[in-house]
């Protein structure tokens, strides 16, 4: 838990919005963490949020009067709502209820908090918290997609047990995770302004309703890369196969199962991306047919007919307006030779090759990479995947800068 002053939050102005939900009690802890990290925090609550947490608590923590009323003569004479909207470096609404998101999407301004969200040009992040059925409801899905499309950062939600007794997606992220997301959003890192799409995890190719062809990828490497990019200020879409990891706060997560779904999701997301990193272990082949019923073990042998999956990385690299493309190469031998062959065959800017098998690469916490680009190669030594991902992101940033300089000259 970050209890020290953060270089990215110190003296930054954070407008902490609280809407009505049981998770509002966690906003007090979040306010405390933000204050400890050195931020100036102004709490703005919706009127209904006052049913869930007391103003006095938040005022004591932030050392500022809590704002709530939209028509407040005293405040309008001092820091009126437009000044407050201009004051904020970041607006973070936690918790954001289904009702709050619906009104935000509709552009309504019937509470002070909604008015500020409309009137401010600061980045806006929301941490949804609601019952799992409400989160899954098509109306909420529509609202969240619309907000995402307008550049609102959707933080979470997490999955798990809910106060209402249900279990599923809709839990607000923990205050520590929201603190981390706020830091990343305010950090003008070396990847600030970069839109990145990252693939991670395995794909599953169904044979019948209960069986699939898959592989051992845990998603750890790809999720670590997404996290490192976010920490450097990038906007990240994470296209992930089935894994048991939580997406880093701030990433736009698209879950897929098969290679065809991953292919479609990537080509949709890549539109205006600057960077594509393909870390997923995508199945090269899929069963030519998916049996509609469970395959019976009638015969002694079973022959599967497989067809080739599209190559996501090669297809993205072949786009006319393509992003900077980074591929991985999972190899058991001759790392450099195979990596160079893949770089050429797929037409990418950089290949990060790793040794796999015998407890290496897949499913483990550490990894080492050989980076191969046109005209050079370099090694990143074995270390935890988080640290390796930071070094990889730093290297990619240098290569992207070098490419821009070459194009300009
Ligand atoms: O998930 P972990 O447990 O942390 O393990 C990490 C990892 C070992 C999976 C990761 O570091 C890694 O090596 N990922 C790439 C695995 C792979 O499929 O490599 P490949 O050499 O078969 O494919 C080459 C490249 O083409 C990869 O970037 C792959 O994502 C991409 N590809 C492959 C096939 C396909 N149909 N579409 C693709 O985009």
Which characteristics define this entry?
single chain, 409 residues, alpha/beta, Rossmann fold, 8-stranded mixed beta sheet, 5-stranded parallel beta sheet, 35% helix, binds ligand PMT
Task: Explain this structure.
The protein has helices at about 25-35, 55-60, 75, 80-85, 100-105, 110-120, 130-135, 140-150, 175-185, 220-230, 260-270, 310-315, 335-345, 385-409, and strands spanning about 15-20, 40-45, 90-95, 125-130, 155, 160, 165-170, 195-200, 205, 210-215, 235-240, 250-255, 275-280, 285, 305-310, 325-330, 350-355, 365-375, 375-385. About 45% of the residues are buried. It starts with 12 loop residues before the first strand and ends with a helix. The protein folds into 2 domains: about 15-185, Rossmann fold; about 195-290 and about 305-409, Rossmann fold, CATH 3.40.50.10300. Strand 6 and strand 7 form a beta hairpin. The radius of gyration is 23 Å and the shape is globular. The strands form 5 sheets. An 8-stranded mixed sheet has the order 12-11-8-13-16-17-18-19, with helices on both faces. It has a 5-stranded parallel sheet with strand order 2-1-3-4-5, with helices on both faces. The mean pLDDT is about 95. It is built from 14 helices and 19 strands. The chain is of the alpha/beta class. Helix 4 (about 80-85) packs across helix 6 and helix 5 packs across helix 8 (about 140-150). Ligand PMT binds near residues 219, 278, 309, 312 and 313.
């Amino acid at each position: 838990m970050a209890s020290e002053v953060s270089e990215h939050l110190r003296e930054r102005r954070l407008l902490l919005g609280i809407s009505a939900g049981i998770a509002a009690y966690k906003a007090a802890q979040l306010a405390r963490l933000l204050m400890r990290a050195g931020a100036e925090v102004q709490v703005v609550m919706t009127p209904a949020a006052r049913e869930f947490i007391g103003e006095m608590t938040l005022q004591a923590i932030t050392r500022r009067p809590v704002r709530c009323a939209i028509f407040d003569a005293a405040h309008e004479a001092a820091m009126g709502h437009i000044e407050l909207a201009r004051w904020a470096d970041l607006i973070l609404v936690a918790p954001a209820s289904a009702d709050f998101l619906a009104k935000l999407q509709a552009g309504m301004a019937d509470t002070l908090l909604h008015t500020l969200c409309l009137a401010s040009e600061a980045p806006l992040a929301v941490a949804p918290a609601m019952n799992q059925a409400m989160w899954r409801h098509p109306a909420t899905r529509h609202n969240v997609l619309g907000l995402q499309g307008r550049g609102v950062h959707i933080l979470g939600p997490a999955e798990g047990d809910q106060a209402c007794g249900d279990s599923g997606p809709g839990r607000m992220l923990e205050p520590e995770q929201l603190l981390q997301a706020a830091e990343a959003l305010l950090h003008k890192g070396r990847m600030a302004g970069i839109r990145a799409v990252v693939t991670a995890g395995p794909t599953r190719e169904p044979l019948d309703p209960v069986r699939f062809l898959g592989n051992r990828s845990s998603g750890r490497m790809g999720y670590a890369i997404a996290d490192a990019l976010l920490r450097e200020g990038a906007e990240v879409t994470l296209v992930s196969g089935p894994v048991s990891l939580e997406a880093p706060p701030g990433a736009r997560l698209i879950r897929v199962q098969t290679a065809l779904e991953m292919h479609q999701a990537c080509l949709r997301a890549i539109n205006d991306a600057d960077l594509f990193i393909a870390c997923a272990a995508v199945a090269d082949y899929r069963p030519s047919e998916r049996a509609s019923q469970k395959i019976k073990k009638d015969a002694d042998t079973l022959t599967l007919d497989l067809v080739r999956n599209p190559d996501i990385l090669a297809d993205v690299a072949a786009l006319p307006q393509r992003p900077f493309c980074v591929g991985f190469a999972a190899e058991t031998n001759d790392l450099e030779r195979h990596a160079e062959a893949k770089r050429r065959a797929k037409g990418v800017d950089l290949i990060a090759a790793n040794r796999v098998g015998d407890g290496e690469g897949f499913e483990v916490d550490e990894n080492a990479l050989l980076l191969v680009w046109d005209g050079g190669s370099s090694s990143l030594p074995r270390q935890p995947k988080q640290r390796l991902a930071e070094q990889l992101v730093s290297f990619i940033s240098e290569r992207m800068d070098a490419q821009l300089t070459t194009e300009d000259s």
